[in-house]
Amino acid sequence: MTGVPASAAGGSGSTPVRGGKLGAAAVNQASLWNIANLLTMARLVLVPGFVVLLLHNGGYDPAWRSFAWAAFAIAMITDLFDGHLARTYNLVTDFGKIADPIADKAIMGAALICLSYLGDLPWWVTGVILFRELGITLMRFWVIRHGVIPASRGGKMKTLAQGTAVGMYVLALTGPLATLRFWVMAVAVVLTVVTGLDYVRQAVVLRRQGLAAERAAQAEPGAGEAPEGASEETGAVAEAAGARGSAEAER
Fold first, then answer.
1. pLDDT for 213-225, tens place per residue?
2. Is 0.70 topped by the overall pTM?
3. Exposed e or buried b for every residue in 193-231, given b needs 16+ CB within 10 A?
4. Do residues 203 and 143 lie in contact, with contact meaning Cβ atoms separated by under 8 Å?
5. Where would I find the beta strands (DSSP E) of 108-179?
6. Is residue 50 exposed (0-12), middle (13-18) or buried (19+ Cβ within 10 Å)?
7. Domain ranges of the chain
8. Would you put residue 238 in left (φ > 0), alpha (ψ -120 to 50) or beta?
9. Which of 39, 79, 89, 149 is the most buried (most CB within 10 A)?
10. Based on C-alpha coordinates, what's the Rg of the chain?
């Protein structure tokens, strides 16, 4: 959801990069079994459990749907915590880089698909949200070598609106609350589309600027000549810093 984003950063547990200011700026590699990754793993485990709870007894038992809502809420809360912990304590791993965005998309995607399957949510709503989330995930990999688009207020509002709306649909609400959840979901869909289009615009601009900078650097005399190991060092620093930022920016 979402993302972001969260423990999606880092390396493979190898020796930290050395050398001058770049070495000092590099993020130290963290153990796989750190608290941020454990929270991400917990979210992944919660996904099948959430689906079972939501669809139990045909999917319309208020008690079981309350249990499903609790699992969904825990998953969304752990998403916030693992991101905060990873950014604060530099808990950087290759596993987190891959697993965190998967966990974010898995819990939200599972909820949307199940709700549409049960007839509670139109399929087009599920399609719009999933298309945006998966599309932006692919696009951030397209531009990550050029930089990271900072997280926007709109993106954070989108994540909050999506989580709130889906949570309200998971609960067996009736009366005014059932009407309210429709409008909350409408706001979530609008924010999903608007922030997605804005991300595409920023990604295109960032890529153009990055390509222009590369061409300018290549045109300079002596361009491409760097001290031995500098390219590898710079790439490691960019990967460690950029992966976490891109996951957060995606939100």
1. 888 888 876 544 5
2. yes
3. eebbeebeebbeebbeeeeeeeeeeeeeeeeeeeeeeee
4. yes
5. none
6. buried
7. 20-249
8. alpha
9. 79
10. 20
